[in-house]
## 1
Amino acid sequence: MALPTIVASGNGTSALATGIRILKRGGSALDAVEACARLVEADPNDKTVGRGGHPNVLGQVELDASIVDGTSRAAGAVAALRGYLYPISVARAVMEKLPHVMLVGDGAARFAREIGAERARNLTASTAKEWRAQLRAIGETPASIRKRKDLVSRVWKMAIDELGTVNFLAIDRRGRIASAVTTSGWAYKYPGRVGDSPIVGAGNYCDSESGAAACTGFGELAMRLLTARVAVERLSRGASAGRAARSAIEDANGIASPGTRLSIVVLAKDGTHGAATTREGVRYTFMTSVMSEPATKPRALVPRTSTK
Ligand code: GLY
């Protein structure tokens, strides 16, 4: 049986000790990944997740999250959720309280209100200032952009290469696996744009018989390839975690256009893990129940070589 372990994208490092404490006292992988994700969601310094995450082109913070229980294969997700502090917990409540997997937009917010989820003003002073600066750079103001009928051209001008997300994959003492992914998505996106993070199978997947995988980067790539599901399928066919991660990025490179990027973390049911990326210098992080602090490792670099 694998040691209780949590693997995360690099921006999840500071949450791992909390997750490992839950696993060490016999808590579930599901509780551990949710607790870790909540810490990052509430941290206004991570501009790619939760409160303080980058807004869409209109200055609205629309959050996406999903959680998967690899034992029951239950899953819950929310997309384009506005005004709540912990999208991951709303996603878990979708899984546990409704006969559905995913809620979006106003429906997700209505459900969050109904379950008494904690509200938050997710656009912080710092992200509002950056949004206004981006608008100024393209000759717009908050008032002018809100009046516009055409946002397509504004999104092409404003959308920046800022597409972080946080991933947590965990195995508990009973060998149960769970995974959580949460994000504010593509900075200055078109309102209503949803990425891979809340799409079970694209940006997040696990199965306690095989392992778990989750993505960061351009969700449009992972959505087209069902990257996380395919990586877990490769584990089930005997690939190592490292091999499953590298081949997922090779697949993405096959359809990627210039400037896009994708990264993946993979955890196999035996506790081994690996990660890969299209971009130099991206690390991932992990912690087991016998470690006193998290460790970070470089991801395997799988650069895009084609010029198409
Ligand atoms: N991977 C995060 C997103 O595309 O929204």
## 2
Amino acid sequence: MRHLLSAGDLSADEITGILDLAEEMSAVQDRPVKKLPALRGRTVVNLFFEDSTRTRSSFEIAGKWLSADVINISAKGSAVSKGESLRDTVMTVGAMGVDAMVIRHMASGAPWQVTGWVDASILNAGDGTHEHPTQALLDAFTLRRHFRRLDGGDLTGRTVAIVGDVTHSRVARSNVLLLRTLGAKVVLVAPPTLMPAGIETWPVAVSHDLDAVLPAVDAVMMLRVQRERMSGGYFPTPREYTISYGLTRPRLESLRPDTPICHPGPMNRGLEISAEAADAASSLVLDQVAAGVSVRMAVLYELLGGAEEMPVTRAHEVLA
Ligand code: ASP
Ligand code: CP
């Protein structure tokens, strides 16, 4: 694997390989000394043109725990704010000899363009409303762990509801691709105004009735209402959105008790998710955050491992 751009580029075997490696990587989180030598001498640059808390910091932690050198560049505070273009910024960073660039950009497709400008491995950390593949991997990791503990199974044959602002959600797009590859069924629930055009061609079921869907699903993934991407009125008022599409306390009570609740974060508490649901025993929100580090360690290792410092087999020995 040279780049990680789309969840749709990964086969079921590749996804399972990454999730299995992430399981091994997760052992590092419980150790007093959180350091493996696997990527010593490798350099990773986080290039973030859009704000982030989870993705940027977990890629940084993941790189550092694997002993890579990690540098952060964000639009604010860099020459981007002086008007430097994406191409010039990326080629400038590339000229320094970095091994990987983790890119978040407001333009859908930007990471694909970047692959033509530099030799480094490119990881898509969210491009516009298009894709966020490592989010889908960490969601699959979190849900697979949940189902393994629940009944020993995996994601095959499970039904996952993805609820909310699907139109603006790269998380939804990457999750649909990844969950379908793993054999799960997806039902998208949103008001008609927040359902993307052409949805009938997606390999999913579609509903506008959250109450009808909830009792029948194996997992619920709530999406943030992305007001920063909205120009007009997609719903009458926030209150009405919550009444129809929020995971409110009564809806939480309508779920089977073992139905996990996911949200990629950041959450709008009181809008798409109530505090009761966000903090419920069945909420996996913080498990998702923890999984983000393990999964990004696995992905960085897949892309950059195999250097002289630590062949794959030795890395596994160190992790064992
Ligand atoms: N943090 C996720 C993203 O960047 C989801 C969101 O912002 O709502 O796509
Ligand atoms: N889930 C996610 O991508 O969060 P950030 O926007 O904080 O990175």
